[in-house]
Amino acid sequence: MDISNGELVALVWGGLPLLGLLLWWWNDLWYALPLKLRHSPTGAKLPPGHMGLPFLGEILTFLWYFKILRRPDDFINAKRAKYGDGVGMYRTHLFGSPTIITCFPGVNKFVFQSDETFIPDWPNVDIVGSSSIVSVHGKSHTRLRRFVENVINRPDPLRRIAQRVQPRMVAALESWAHKGRFKAYDEAKKVTFENIGNLFVSLEPGPLLDTIDNLFDGLVKGIRAHPLNIPGSAYHHARQCRKKLEDIFRVELEKKKTQKEGVTNDLMDGLMQIKDDEGNRLNDQEVLDNIVSIVIAGYSSTSLSKMWALYYLAKYPNVLQKLREENMVVSKNKTGEFITSDDVSKMKYTNKVVEETIRLANIAAFVFRLTTKEAEYKGYRIPKDWRVIVWIRYLHTNPENFDDPMCFNPDRWNEPSKPGTYQVFGGGSRICAGNMLVRIQLATFLHHLSIGYK
Ligand code: HEM
């Protein structure tokens, strides 16, 4: 059969819209349609949403809201406007996977608490460490969690940690005052890492600590990189950094074994010495993997929270003034050079500034999970092997949960937040294991900042 040129042009022009439509619905046809055809026995349906183009999914729309408009939560607002609120769940396709986004308190809580169904989704477990708290599940996780919390998040260690971190904070603030202008994040990172070196392995600032800092930088860049193990890739570099870090920490660990117990009383000592109820200790690899993962979890989060505190206080001088008034009183009444964790617990306004900084900074904007078996929430299905993105920052920027949410207003904490609307540290069995540690660090930092500087 001969096709004339005219017919060919008509065919192409007629076919193009069809092809466009096919591409536009590709992921819905590929992932959602087969599930819709296989009805759930309970009649539950997939959450509403659009899964977008092949491979790309909705990543271009996501980048539009994040990088161009710089209003990340409008990605969710657009879905609410288009598909309705439902239970705060939408289907999409992001970062190469079919995904369910959750963004309301109830459904987020459901995901956090169903920890056998929704497991943390770390792509490169070998970089984080396969026996680290974030990589293990079930009973192994409960066991490790107890060790880690007992060393960094309980009143006794926090009392010691509060004392250990202050000298470097005070020195850093003095040096910033001399500099006049400085980059807040870089300087906050520097003092945070000096304190990490001191807290974890009793290291003083110097070339070894700088090397460790650079190695962590390389390691973190590889955590979510494509696992392509060839020279030049972020993943390959991260593996090398991981190896070198392990070598350095192993030397420190061996040194400690020959020292008398408790000589330095740092976190590596704590993790080496602590025993569970059966009298068992962590093995060397568990100690190393957990030091690495706690530093990963705590380093940039603590630095960012200090940076945002500086930013908000510069923008809201009335808050700085109230902070100063409270802290001057504490400063006059304190016995030694530094405040204690008991002082911190009495600093009511300072603790509200801490909470408000963490709420508005949204340092952990999302939490990722992988669905190990099909789940159902209030009539909606979450299919097996799909990813779940718990969009926690949406809770904190949503005016239905917080009045005038983008305003930095520590006084909003005069009343507790509405139930379930404050999930900065996640929830369930994996709620942040360093939540009290970061709070005490931020409060002591605010104390020294507000009593000495404008
Ligand atoms: C403002 C600062 C911080 C924020 C907003 C934050 C937020 C979070 C969130 C949302 C999770 C849950 C992740 C998930 O469910 O998958 C988490 C877990 C964790 N965080 Fe933090 N974090 C902060 C600081 C810290 C610090 C300072 C440390 C320790 C030095 C730390 C250690 C951890 C650890 C070990 C986990 C894993 C817990 C587990 O899997 O059981 N975090 N954090």
From TrEMBL:
| Subcellular localization | Membrane
Gene Ontology cellular-component terms for this entry are: membrane
The primary site where this protein sits is: membrane
A GO BP annotation: brassinosteroid homeostasis
Any Pfam family: p450
UniProt keyword list: Heme, Iron, Membrane, Metal-binding, Monooxygenase, Oxidoreductase, Transmembrane, Transmembrane helix
Top-rank taxon, per record: Eukaryota
Q: Which residues cross the membrane?
A: 7-26
> What is the recorded membrane topology of this protein?
Single-pass membrane protein
Which Gene3D superfamilies does the entry mention?
Answer: Cytochrome P450
Q: What GO terms are given for molecular function? A: heme binding; iron ion binding; monooxygenase activity; oxidoreductase activity, acting on paired donors, with incorporation or reduction of molecular oxygen
Q: Is Transcription regulation tagged as a keyword?
A: no
**Cofactor(s) this protein requires:** heme
Where is heme annotated to bind?
A: C432
Keyword hit for Iron? yes
The family annotation for this protein states:
Belongs to the cytochrome P450 family.
**The protein's name in its UniProt record:** Ent-kaurenoic acid oxidase 1-like
Organism in which the protein naturally occurs: Prunus avium
